[in-house]
Amino acid sequence: NMTRKVIIDCDPGIDDAVALCMALFDTRINVAAVTAVAGNVPADQSSRNVQAIIERIDPPRYPRLGAASDPELSPGSNASYMHGEDGLGNAGIVVSRLHHQHPSEKIICDEVRSDPNRVTLLCLGPLTNVARAFQRDPELPTLIDRIVMMGGCVNGMGNVTPAAEWNMHYDPDSARLVFRSPVAKTLVPLDVTRAIHFTMGFLDELPSEETRVGAFLRKILQFRYLAYHQRLGQESIHLHDAVALLAVLQPDHFAFEEMAGDVETRGELTAGATIFDRRRNRQWRPNMEVAMTVDAEAVERDIVQCLSHAGRANG
Ligand code: RIB
Ligand code: CA
Questions:
Q1: Is 240 a catalytic residue?
Q2: Atom of ligand 1 at shortest distance to CA of 190?
Q3: Ranges of the chain whose pLDDT falls below 50
Q4: I need a surface site. Which of 54, 77, 119, 292 has the fewest CB within 10 A?
Q5: What is the distance in A from the centroid of ligand 2 to the CA of 239?
């Protein structure tokens, strides 16, 4: 069928949750699996949050779920100030009972193997699971149609450190392994995901409280508005992962550049930094396309429309 098969690897996380609300009701894609990865929250909490979100919004088709396990060298830093202790704005979204789930990397391998060259892997968190999937099945990079990753930054301003963006910084070794793999890659960096500012007016455009999606989003987003106000002195928020999903749903809202990228894995100040060879006499081989500019108004409008559709479909 014409809908594109997608696996979403994520670390919910409030902006991951918004992207899931959009993707699971969008008829342009078939979300065959949602695989949890440690990042915003530790692995077990991430697995619980994935299941809790899906149970709460009750999409028409339930995706297969993958369980996260913490990377060997998971850093101490955590994002509770940005996502709440539970990763979902301390909104009290809990699973009834955590179903037995296969490891995320196994789900990724199985789903890609069952539809060679037809799966888009959308990564909204650290690349731990993708690296493990490639180690588990070395042929996998040649069997995935495309990997679209939210992460990194091109013009050098990180978020978790001055040099690095959160997803890449959390597991830089996995990020480097994926960047150096032969699979077709698209990177959606902070440079473009920061261009969309969701003001308080965005809350008014959400589906109504009566819908599952509307009630859920209002609960988790208020934490983010408060965190941006208190921690960053900003009255609008970013939703990096929702913008990255739009790069899959509506790529024409972005301009992409073929680039040669890599990840710093040992820097004292620069660990997790994404580095690009942009010299005129470039030595590195181009290995990905990077979203460099975006039509911010169009993307914001489409995110609102996507969520409105989810609310109508969700009753
Ligand atoms: O740097 C932003 C990214 O880190 C987003 O994916 C957010 O959810 C966090 O994982
Ligand atoms: Ca994320």
A1: yes
A2: 1
A3: none
A4: 77
A5: 9
